[in-house]
Amino acid sequence: MQVTMQRKSFADMPCPIARSLEHVGEWWSMLILRDALRGARRFDEFQEGLGIAPNILTRRLTSLVRSGLLQRRRYSDLPRRYEYVPTERARDFRPVLWLLIAWGNKHFAPEGPSLLIVDAKTGLRADPIVVDRGTGRPLMSPDFALAAGPAATVRQRRLYGAAVGAGEAAADDTRARSRERKSRVS
């Protein structure tokens, strides 16, 4: 008798990490996104590149489409075939993948890096870091820490405390996103 474990859903958890993992936390999902962001579009390209079983690939592609990370587009009527195109949400995930590449190269590649991040124009190797958009300072502990935000639960407030100027930060973030959207439209 085979027992299947039911995976717990993170969708309703208040933690942004948990909610993100609900959409990209299954390991095939990140590898599919990696390949989609480098140009793979068709089922057979993903299957060949990843060596993934067709049934698993179908489930992962369906999940990524439902999560708004890939858009499914028909490219052939006879036979009916689809391609999977990264959305803006997927493109926003690219820096997360780059950070995973750098972290994996540093900690889990004793033979040396198999993938490098390079400047597209010069070919020079890049070393990604996360910086604060407002100050340009690297987000490193102890200079930066987690704090409960405006939508935090009681538990999160207890664990992380309230952010200093959280209301101002949220308003600044909203204004910055609005300016960004307007500049894209222009």
Task: Kindly describe this structure.
The chain is mostly helical and 186 residues long. Among the domains are: 16-89, Winged helix-like DNA-binding domain superfamily/Winged helix DNA-binding domain (Arc Repressor Mutant, subunit A); 145-186, no CATH class. It is built from seven helices and two strands. A two-stranded antiparallel sheet has the order 1-2. Helix 2 (27-37) crosses helix 5 (88-108).
Draw up the topology in text:
Elements: H1 16-24, H2 27-37, H3 43-50, H4 54-66, E1 70-76, E2 81-86, H5 88-108, H6 154-160, H7 166-185
Antiparallel strand pairs: 1-2
Helix pairs in contact: 2-5
- Most strands sheet: 2 strands, antiparallel
H/I helix tally = 7
| CATH fold naming of the domain at 16-89 | Arc Repressor Mutant, subunit A
Strand order of the largest sheet: 1-2
CATH class placement of the domain at 16-89: Mainly Alpha
Question: What is the H-and-E element order?
Answer: HHHHEEHHH
Radius of gyration using CA atoms only:
20 Å
Instruction: Give the N-terminus to C-terminus distance in angstroms.
Output: 61 Å
Mean pLDDT, to the nearest integer, reads 86
- Roughly how much helix do the residues carry, as a percent range? 40-55%
